[in-house]
Structure formats: structure tokens, C-alpha cells
Amino acid sequence: MTRYTRVRLAPRGPFHFGGRGVGMEHSEVGLPADSLFSALCFTLAEAAGMSAVEALLARFPKTGAPASAPFRLTSLMPYAAGVHFLPYPMIGPPNVPGATELRKRKRFKAVQWVSTAVFRSLVRHQEPTDALDSADTPVVVHGGRVWLTRAEQASLSGFVGRHPETNQKEVPVLWRTGRRPRVTVDRVSSASAVYATGSTLFNTGPDGQTAGLYTVIEWLDADDALRDFIVQAFVRLGAAGIGGERSSGHGQFEPVFEDFEEWPIGVAAGRYFTTLSPYHPWPDETEVLDLGARYEIVLRRGWLSLAGFQNLRRASVRMLADGSVLHWPVGGEPLGDLADVTPDRLKPAGPRIYRYGLAFPVRIADAAMDLTPPAPLPSQGRGEATSPLLAGEGPGVRSGGAT
User: pLDDT band at residue 153, thresholds of 50, 70 and 90?
Assistant: First the structure.
């Protein structure tokens, strides 16, 4: 039976992926796996009712109760034609001469996305010679945020765009994030107010080549019925739209499915891994946060999209961000759980609300890591064994060494 399914979201228009703490004028490029999973569950609830969603959630591990899971998925990540991008793992610059110079090192630190070929080189500790220019700095596009090989850069040369301010021709341009003007009219006074919303628009290349978003599903213990269920959920979600501003035509896409048996992007053995989805370890998985780990803690929260409860905010939960580098648990593999984020108002008799927090682990070669542990930080009265996820550290915190 097929182990992996790549789902490409070929866009029919722009996307709007906002974030807590920023205005509507902002739009991200990708979408975290927990938001994607919530969108799929909402679509399933509309098509088959809440009982179908509850039956699906019952097959996933909950906080404090580890178990197997039917599948896990990555966050939505960008692609263009045949080139797929992944988040830069927090292992720091590669072992190349250019990374030892301060000015050149900054170019590596600015990278947010890397192509699959570059990702493989990084996690396997192989020098990405075909992804470096004559100055031993990365071959990049999108203002230095996307790292790819010279051959991939040439293959995407058909994605032509123009700078929104100078109108200068730019190659390649895979996507643009910008603002779209909107207007609202008061129903009583007919007074108008102008505002703007952010949008991410993916470019189209020659010969029908497209750029868009994709996710990879790893089927762990899913039967044929569940697989068909998830496929149909993506089809329905494509028609309804994903993200914000759906009433304005944002978020619609055409899903394209590709099955394969192996996805060889990591290594077979290694003491550390990187995750391609936000990860919420259950209490017995705290060993992933050892002194050699390099991670970022993100605060995940938002409003409910449940019939009759749209005015309720889900409880906040801290997770380890995509690209975090963590210690592989001894005697098992990282799993994560569904975090209970049920609002207090629903806890007595209402439905339970969960946020997806399963890791999508990719092993890293030991040679790619500087395994010399840093000096332990002072406990500051919290206790040395306290996990940052439980101690209440805020978002944006990195630990276990600089990246």
C-alpha cells in the first residue's frame, strides 16, 4: 500500500494566510500543519457531520495518552514546476568556506526556504557545491530567502515578473505577497472606509507550469476508506477555499495527488531530527529538548469555526516550530499529540476541541550537527529539568545553541 501522498494545491487565485499579532495587510507564504488539519476537519464536518470528525480524532493520540496515528502531514510549503521547497532546518550554515566569513554568513542566515536537493545536502552533511555561486554563497532567489541549485534556478527562468514599484523585469518570480485595497460601506450612513488586506499570489510559468503550495501525507495506519475520505476532503476544500478572505475569492485551488513509496530526504540513522510541521510533544517526550536541540517556540491560538460557537477563542498552546532540530527519542520515534484547546465555556458539556501537534520527523546525520553541548543556562528558580513548553516561555525563543 502507498506510504506517501503529495498533494499539490494548484491555486485558482491568491491566498490570505494571516498571523496573530499582525494586521490584515500581512500574508504568509505557507500554512502550518495544524491549520491545514483544522480546515480538513471543518470540511469533513460539513460533508459527513461531526460524528465523522469525532471518529477520526479518536484515532489520534491525545495529551498524556500516546498511541498510534492513522497519518501525519507536513505544513503547506511552496513549489514551482518540479521544484519543491522545505523550511531551512535550524542546523546553521553548511560547512563551506563562505560560511566562515561574517559578511557571507549573513546570506545563509537570511534563507527561509530550501529546495529538496539543498535540503538533502544539509541534513546529510554533504557540501552543496551545485547550490553555491563563485563566492561560496548560496544561489538564491526572492531577495535571498529561497536557496536552490543553479540547475533549478535555470529551470525556473520562465517564471517572469516585474517589480511592483519599479516595473523592472525580474527572473525568477515564483510568488508575490502584497496588499489589495478593499472598501466597506456603512449600512446606515453609506459612509465608506478604505482598508487593505494581504495576499499571496503564485506566478504561472510557460507551458502550463504552475507554482503553488503542497503538503506530504505519510500514511501510518489508514485504511482505504480513510484515505478516500481525506482525498475527498481536499477536493471539497479546494472548492470552498483555505485561509482568510474566502468570500473575496481567496484560497481556492485544484488538488493534484501523487503517490510514492519512499521520500528519501533524510538519513536512516541519526541522533537528531527536524520536523516539517509544528510539534507538540506529549509529557513523556521531553527528551527531545536536550541541550543539543535548536528550536523555536511558537504560540498557536485562534477563533473557533464551529457552528454556533464562532465567537469563542480556542485555548492557546505552545508548539515547536517547523524546522526545529530536536533529539530523537531513545527506543522510539517522535510522535506528538492532539492538544486539547477546548474553551472553558465548552468544557462542561460541549464538544472537545483539539489542535493538531504531530511531528513530521526527518532524521539528520550526526556529522551535520555540532554535538558539543552548550553550557547549561541558569535555572532562575524554575528547576533545571523544566521544559520550556511547560515553563511558559514565549514565542520566538531559541534554545540549545545558536543557529
Answer: very high
Measure Cα distances from 221 to 49, 68, 71, 289 in Å.
Answer: 23, 8, 6, 27
d(CA 282, CA 298): 16
Find, among 17, 10, 8, the residue nearest to 245 by Cα.
Answer: 17
Distance of CA 81 to the CA centre of its chain: 20
Enumerate the H helices of 84-215 as residue ranges: 102-109, 116-123, 150-155
- 19/311 Cα distance (integer angstroms): 18
User: Using an 8 Å Cβ cutoff, are 27 and 200 in contact?
Assistant: yes
Q: Report pLDDT digits (tens) over 53-98.
A: 888 998 898 765 556 899 999 999 999 999 999 999 998 878 777 7
Judging by beta carbons within 10 Å of its beta carbon (0-12, 13-18, 19+), is residue 338 exposed, middle or buried? Answer: buried
Q: How far apart are CA 298 and CA 296, in angstroms?
A: 6
- From residue 384, alpha-carbon distances to 216, 376, 380 in Å are 37, 9, 9
Q: Cβ atoms within 10 A of the Cβ of 19, count?
A: 13
Grid cell listed for 80 = 514551482
CB atoms within 10 A of CB 87: 22
CA dist., res. 302 & res. 264, Å (int): 35
Q: Please give the backbone phi and psi of residue 67, each rounded to the nearest 5 degrees, phi first.
A: -160, 180
Domains of the chain, CATH where assigned: 1-81+201-263 (3.30.70), 272-399 (no CATH)
Strands 113-115 and 146-147: parallel
Using alpha carbons only, give the angle 96, 98, 104 rounded to the nearest 5 degrees. Answer: 140
| Angle of helix 224-240 versus helix 33-48 axis, rounded to 10 | 100
* H or E element in which residue 372 lies: none
Grid cell digits, residue 335: 510522535
pLDDT tens-place string over residues 287-336: 899 888 999 999 888 777 666 666 777 888 899 999 999 999 887 888 88
**Length of the chain in terms of residues written:** 403
